[in-house]
Structures are given as C-alpha cells and as structure tokens.
Amino acid sequence: MNGKFKRTMVWLMLLIFLLTLSITITINSTWLYALNVYYGDFLPLVNLSAKAMLQNYHALLAYLNYPWVTTLKMPDFTDSPSALVHFSNVKQLFMINYIMLIGTSYPTIKWLNWLKKHEQQWRLISIMQGTLTVLGFILIMMFLNFNQFFIAFHKVLFRNNDWEFYPQQDPIINALPESFFAQAFLLWLGCFSVFCLGLLIYGKLYFKSKK
How many other CB atoms are found less than 10 A from the CB of residue 66? Predict the structure, then answer.
C-alpha cells in the first residue's frame, strides 16, 4: 500500500508540474495580448492607443505576478472595490501556481531521471494517455459553449461574484474580451497537451529502442 501511495503521489506531482508550467507559460505570454490589441476591435471601447493599453496590461501583470507589488495601479484605469478584491484573489492564485510549480519541479525531474535510469519510461504511457483524454474532453466542452465553460471555471475557483465586471464601474473589462480568454485557454491546453504528448512519445520510444 505504501508503494502504491508513493507512486500515486509521484504521478500527481508530475501532473501538477505540467499543469502549473503550462499555466505559467500562458499567463506570461504577453505576445498573445499584444496580438489582440493590434488586431482586435476593443480599443475604441476603452478609447486608448495600443501602446497605452499594453502599458496598462503590463501594470496589471506586474501586480498579479510579483509578490512585492501589493497595490494595483494602472495608468488609465481605476477599479471598483469588488474588482480590486477579484484581482487580489487572482494574485493569490498566481502565487499558489508558482509555489506549486517550484515545489514539484525537483521531484518531477528526479522521478523522470529514475525512470530513465531503470528503463521504466513505459510507465509514462498510460498516465499520459489518460491525461490527454481528459484534455480532449475539456477542449470539447470549450468548443460546445465557451461562455458556460468560462462561467463554470470562475464559479469553481472563486467563492464570490466579484469576477462579474460591469463596464460602467470597471471599464478594464472592455480591454479583456472573452475572445482573449478563449485564446489563453487554448494556449494553456496546447502547452499541456504538447508536454503530455512528448512524454507519451518518450515512453513509447522505450519499446522501439528495445526492438
């Protein structure tokens, strides 16, 4: 039982590492937002230039990413109390993500090295196949109704309704269209899938090398 529990924990840490690594890549892909700024159609809603909007977005990311930035200050936006609470909650999730990424990185690397040393790479196959199946299911839900998926996502992560922004109170929401979040989810899903597919192929190459 102890051995089975240990293996379960190791696999769980591997999946958490891949999950948080994919999230980290996604939330720091500022190029994705830049594409939306230059090729999207929301700038007239905020009455700002592309350069100004990117400055505001970088200020928001700095607050969310850095523990030492304790106050959200965007050059051209002020937020309602509920919006500030929401961004504070998001910042906490960002910090949890980074802590989990750092905490699982060494055990994951150590475990992958152990698999290689003992020629146990084949063990990656079933867990990666199962994970890719779940990711495929998430992709289907997103395509069927992203709006409902987006709402459900917020209800799972947040215990209040502060994530419901209104343009009159928080015009920043006009600069964060749903289409951008859909692209971000796809980027996260793509990163996660590529990592899992890479480990799946790595596991299958073991059999090929033996032949």
Answer: 12
